Every structure is written in structure tokens, then in C-alpha cells.
Amino acid sequence: MSNRPPRLTRVFQSIDSPVYFVTFNTFRRQPFLAEDSVHEAFRAFAGAGMERGVGIGRYVLMPDHAHLFVRGAADFRLAQWVRLLKRAVSKVISGSSPHWQEGFFDHVMRSSESYSAKWEYVRQNPVRAGLAAVPEEWPYAGQIVDIFL
């Protein structure tokens, strides 16, 4: 049984393939995500997912958490996909497990305005954390595919 609240099916039933904003954290906020090998593993997973109809739009990998936008085909199962993403990235992380805090946060984006506003907030994370002077300096952020609402 999941600890997550059920989706409001009748509200979202008209959305064939919603865009999800997803956030997940490392176990005990360990700072291992902002590494080249992790970034490469993340991008490789994203590339392989496109072949199965799953696209990662914009993303930011912070040292201890990740933010991303994802859209999948009609039969897309977000929880299973996040589990697979974490497993793929774990393969390049040194140190003992667990690597991940249990679960994740997600939000269905409802409009292009909310997507733009959320992205602006997320892309500023490295600046607010003192890791970059401007968002463009942060090497662990980008976009895999265009996701339109």
C-alpha cells in the first residue's frame, strides 16, 4: 500500500500524457548528485527512456536532490519510472546504500504558465544555494527534450 494520496482520476482523466514535476532526495541528504558520473548516468537513462515514450524535459541535479519535468505515454507509471531512474543512477554512486530517501514528490503541471514559473524557481536553486553566480554556470542542469503543455 502506498503512502501517497490517490490521484483525482476524474480531474485528470482528460489529460492523456500529463507533465509531472518531480523532486526526490538522497538518503540523509548526502551530497553525491552533483557529479559528472551521476549526471552522465542520468542523461543516459533519459536517452534510453525516449525510446520507450518517456521524455525528461528540463532538470536540475543539486548535490542532495533532483528536480525534473517528465512526460510519458498514456500507460506511463511514474512511481515505477522513478524507481528505475534511482536504480540506474545508483550504479555509478560510490559508497554504501541506501542512496535514496524513500519516495518522491510529484505535481501535475496544468498550464504552460505554471511550468514556466516552476522552472524559473528550480533553475535558480544553484544560485540560492551559493553553488553558482547565475543558473547558466551550474553544469548539472539542462533539458533532454522539449515538453510542451
DSSP, total strands: 5
Strand arrangement across the biggest beta sheet: 4-1-3-2-5
Mean pLDDT equals 88
Mass-distribution shape: globular
Domains (count): 1
CATH superfamily: Transposase IS200-like
- The CATH architecture assignment turns out to be 2-Layer Sandwich
- The sequence of SSEs as H and E is HEHEEHEHHE
Multimeric organization: single chain
CATH topology: Alpha-Beta Plaits
Radius of gyration: 15 Å
Q: Describe the largest sheet.
A: 5 strands, antiparallel
Q: Separation of termini?
A: 31 Å
Q: What structural category characterises the helix and strand content?
A: alpha+beta
Strand content: 15-25%
Poorly predicted regions:
4-14
- Count of runs of 4 or more consecutive helical residues: 5
Characterise the protein shown here.
The chain has 149 residues and is an alpha+beta fold. It has a single domain (17-143), classed as 2-Layer Sandwich (Alpha-Beta Plaits). It is built from five helices and five strands; from the N terminus they run αβαββαβααβ. The chain has a five-stranded antiparallel beta sheet, with helices on both faces. Strand 2 and strand 3 form a beta hairpin. The longest helix is centred in the N-terminal third of the chain and has 15 residues, at 36-50. It is globular.
In a nutshell, what does this entry contain?
The chain has five helices and five strands; from the N terminus they run αβαββαβααβ. With 149 residues, the chain is an alpha+beta fold.
Secondary-structure map:
Blueprint lengths: L8 H4 L6 E7 L10 H15 L4 E7 L3 E7 L6 H13 L14 E4 L3 H12 L1 H4 L12 E3 L6
Antiparallel strand pairs: 1-3, 1-4, 2-3, 2-5
